[in-house]
Amino acid sequence: MSGYASNIVTGLLLFPLIAAVITLPYMVYQYRKVGSIPWLRTLIVYSFVFYMLVAYFMVILPLPEDRTAVVPYAAHPQLVPFNFVKLFLDNTTASLGNPSTWPGLVRDPNVYEALFNVLLLVPLGMYLRYYFRRTWWQTLIIGFCVTLFYETSQLTGLWGVYEHPYRLFDVDDLMLNTLGAMVGFWMMGPALRVLPDMRLVNEEAREDGVRASATRRGLSFFIDLAAAQIAAGVVVDVAEALGAQAAVESAGAGWGLAVQAVEFAALAVFFAVIPALSHGRTLGQRLLKLRIVRPDASPARWYQIAARYGLLFLLAWAPFALLLGVVDLDPSQAGETNALAAIAAQHQAGIIWAWLAFMATWAVTLVVRGVRSAVKKKPFVMLNGLMSNTRVMTEAGARLVRERRAVLDVAEVAALERRIAEDGTPLAELMERAGGAVADEVRAWVPDPAPVVVLAGSGNNGGDGWVVARKLAEAGYPVTLVAPDLAERLHAEPARSTAMEAFSDASVRNLPLSVLIAPDADVLADAVDKAEAVVDALLGTGFSGDEVREPYASWIRAANRRRFEGARGKGRGRHRKRTHERGEHERGRRALPPKVKSAPFAVSVDVPSGLAAQDGVAARPTFAADMTVTMLAFKPGLTVPAAARWTGAVKLAKLGVDVPALRGELHEGEAS
């Protein structure tokens, strides 16, 4: 038992070094893949590394005293399956009929070694199922390969490091370790119901990764700074090897000054020349998918980039240069220079304390701004960025800012759709693509098939909803589509033909798609209570007004109540009832109430129903979405700050259309 404990201690001592080595590559990988570093994923990754380290130490330690050591019992592999059972039966004094002998079982080496062999890979099976999302047969194969690697390490004397095997290759260990991996896999099954889904953790990280966090920007800066210092060091070493130091000193110049000039030149190359030549990206920013742009996300000019980093280094260097200048002042000589130097020399201690107070205040404000940026999801802007009129954005964030600026009025969107149809892409095809884009978002946020409710209106926005319902049903999601009338009674085209085709297709293929036509309140509430996602495809860009008509108003209220107050079976009572009746989430307020833990993922098609796409004015009621997937281009109402509480995150689905080119053609046609 002490041997197992010593192996764990060895892992604890070595793990900080391993963690330090993998941290930078891990951060770069995470920022490139998902855009941010979720704490839960990081905790699991580092715990997995620690577990694998300790597990391997359990297998290979203790090591022999020298390379030529011969361990007799390990010389010949044990290839007889279940040999440990035979050894146990031959040597045990325990009897199943005598309970007093049972405690001795756990002290039998054949028993506790077998148990430890099973336990060794139990965590591996849990990690494989939860974090890596492996199936049972993949876990079986991976568990077997891992234990085979362990046993082969022992058989080969740690892959040739030692001349002879020093631990026994045992086929029983192969079986028991593999069984342990499967036990871990099965144990994780019930836990999956309560643990956060790692796929959702990754999706949330991607949403957060649109913003250039202070940590991400700081990491890119230090990567560039380290690269510049390494490059300068290489140049200086090569110059010294070629005799440059002697030549500089013989010319009467100082070698130290020359080294500083090389370091300055390296900084200029990495922070000014390279980003100017690579469209606003330093090497570190390219690695982490960042970009230097103007506040409106348009490309920054070379002189703005140079000013940004020139000011940064100036502002970083000047306080320390000032401090060193004050410290180096000689009170006896300062008066001969000027009165200001004399005053500074006489009050050195006070100036140094004032400098420390200033730097501490600056550091605190920096931390506060960084925390505020992280909490409020706002950009972290530094003084040099303000002075140079530049910002550091993620590539995705800069693209989103440009898309939000390129808004199209509702009338322009209609004209654009007509032009697309004239160019050979029918509106039915656009509807198919739009529904597919929304269905993809639902699958991303509800990764495993679960009940979904689609609220479909009678217009073309409702046609998008029918496509969403069909595509989710094809993926195995049980879908309930709520519509005001039968598909054949819809009047808008191509919504009518699309709805009829989707309904017919679902019937022929026996897809899990059911349709509720104008259901009563209880039936609708039951469907929404069970849903893991609610899709709002009721009212499109053509809506405006102060009130939503029935039955859409009741449907929106049912979805919002589920979002803010939970399922009807939870928290019933007078207070709950009054809250329902008041419709408190409809009150005009700067922020909506927090949604309940069990709230389904809510997504709106093109624009939340009840929100005017043209001016962002919210009617009573308005659908509260976690995400809005808008088609072709942003509409003006989606960019209004007050609309954010209803829209959630806004995603643009371009539907395979070159909108800027077509928009330019439309404007040219209007001008002519």
TrEMBL record:
Residues of the signal peptide: none
Chain ranges passing through the membrane: 12-31, 43-63, 114-132, 139-162, 174-195, 221-244, 264-284, 305-327, 347-368
Biased composition (Basic residues): 569-580
Annotated PROSITE patterns: YJEF_N
Binding site for K(+): N461, D536, S609
Assigned EC number: 5.1.99.6
Membrane topology recorded in Swiss-Prot or TrEMBL: Multi-pass membrane protein
Locations listed in the record: Membrane
Domain YjeF N-terminal: 413-663
Named cofactor requirement(s): K(+)
Catalytic activity: (6R)-NADPHX = (6S)-NADPHX; (6R)-NADHX = (6S)-NADHX
Comment on bound cofactor: Binds 1 potassium ion per subunit.
UniProt family annotation: Belongs to the NnrE/AIBP family.
Function summary: Catalyzes the epimerization of the S- and R-forms of NAD(P)HX, a damaged form of NAD(P)H that is a result of enzymatic or heat-dependent hydration. This is a prerequisite for the S-specific NAD(P)H-hydrate dehydratase to allow the repair of both epimers of NAD(P)HX.
The protein's name: NAD(P)H-hydrate epimerase
Organism of this sequence: Gordonibacter massiliensis (ex Traore et al. 2017)
